[in-house]
Automatic annotation (TrEMBL):
Alphabetized InterPro entries for the sequence: CheY-like_superfamily (IPR011006), LytR-like (IPR046947), LytTR_DNA-bd_dom (IPR007492), Sig_transdc_resp-reg_receiver (IPR001789)
GO MF annotation: an example: DNA binding
SUPFAM superfamilies to which the protein is assigned, alphabetical: CheY-like
Protein name: Two component transcriptional regulator, LytTR family
Length: 236
C-alpha cells in the first residue's frame, strides 16, 4: 500500500515530539499534522486525509473518546495513554491498538505492523470493521460454540493442546494452543505472562514478586516474560 498518512494528538508537547520522531523514522508512515489542542485537531481531522491518528484520551476541551465519536468512521486510531481503563470503550470506534505511555519505539513499531494490513482495506460507513466492534470471541467446546465476552474472561490457562478459559462462574475447555489464542485476543486487554497463561489486565488485583493475583487465583510470571510484563503492568 502507499504511505500511511498519520496525525498526532496529545496535550503534552513532549509526547507529540516523541511520536513525531517515531513516525519520521518509519518509512511506511507520513506525518500530515499534529496538535496539542483537541479542538484544533478535530478541525484538522475533518479536513485532512488521515489514515491513522495517534490520540491521547485525557485532554482538556475534549477527550479522545469524544473526538473519535464526533469523527465517526473517518479514520483509524491508535490510543496513546498512561491509563488502561479506556480499553473497552475503544471498541466502539476504529481503534486498532492501545499504546501505554511511555511508548517505546519497539512497541510503536509492533503497533504499526498490526495496523498495516487493516489500513490496506478502505473504511466503509455502512459496514464498520469487525476489528473495531468485537468485544467477544466464540469458543468451541463439546460440539458447540460458546460466546465469551472479553470482560468476563479472567485468564486463559494452557494445558498441552488444550486451553482452560477461566470465567467468573465457570470454566470452558477447548482444543487449541496458547499461541493461537494470544494472536486472537486483543493486546489492549490481554497479556501473556507465562508460557502457560494469558491474563485479562482488567481483572488483575495485585502483583507480588513473580505472582499475579486475580480474585482467588494466583498466576505465575514466567522469567522470560517478567521484564515486559512488569514494565507494562506497573506503568498502567
Amino acid at each position: 500500500m502507499s504511505s500511511i498518512r498519520c496525525y498526532i494528538l496529545d496535550d503534552e508537547p513532549m509526547a507529540v515530539a516523541l511520536l513525531s520522531d517515531y513516525v519520521n523514522k518509519s518509512p511506511q508512515l507520513t506525518l500530515v499534522g499534529s496538535s496539542t489542542s483537541a479542538l484544533q485537531a478535530l478541525t484538522d481531522l475533518q479536513q485532512l486525509e488521515v489514515d491513522l491518528c495517534f490520540i491521547d484520551i485525557q485532554m482538556p476541551e475534549l477527550t479522545g473518546l469524544q473526538i473519535m465519536s464526533l469523527l465517526g468512521r473517518k479514520t483509524y486510531f491508535i490510543i496513546t495513554s498512561a491509563y488502561n481503563q479506556y480499553a473497552l470503550e475503544g471498541y466502539e470506534h476504529n481503534v486498532i491498538d492501545y499504546l501505554l505511555k511511555p511508548v517505546t519505539y519497539e512497541r510503536f513499531f509492533k503497533s504499526i505492523q498490526k495496523a498495516t494490513p487493516i489500513l490496506s482495506m478502505p473504511i466503509t460507513k455502512e459496514e464498520p470493521k469487525k476489528t473495531s466492534q468485537e468485544n467477544f470471541l466464540f469458543v468451541k467446546t463439546d460440539g458447540k460454540h460458546i460466546k465469551v465476552q472479553y470482560e468476563d474472561l479472567k485468564y486463559v490457562e494452557g494445558l498441552k493442546d488444550y486451553l482452560v478459559f477461566h470465567l467468573a462462574n465457570e470454566k470452558i475447555i477447548t482444543l487449541s494452543t496458547l499461541k493461537e489464542m494470544e494472536d486472537k485476543l486483543p493486546s489492549i486487554l490481554f497479556i501473556r505472562v507465562h508460557k502457560s497463561y494469558i491474563i485479562n489486565k482488567q481483572h488483575l488485583d495485585s502483583i507480588e514478586r513473580n505472582r499475579l493475583y486475580i480474585d482467588k487465583a494466583i498466576v505465575p510470571i514466567g522469567e522470560t516474560y517478567k521484564k515486559t510484563v512488569l514494565g507494562q503492568l506497573i506503568k498502567e
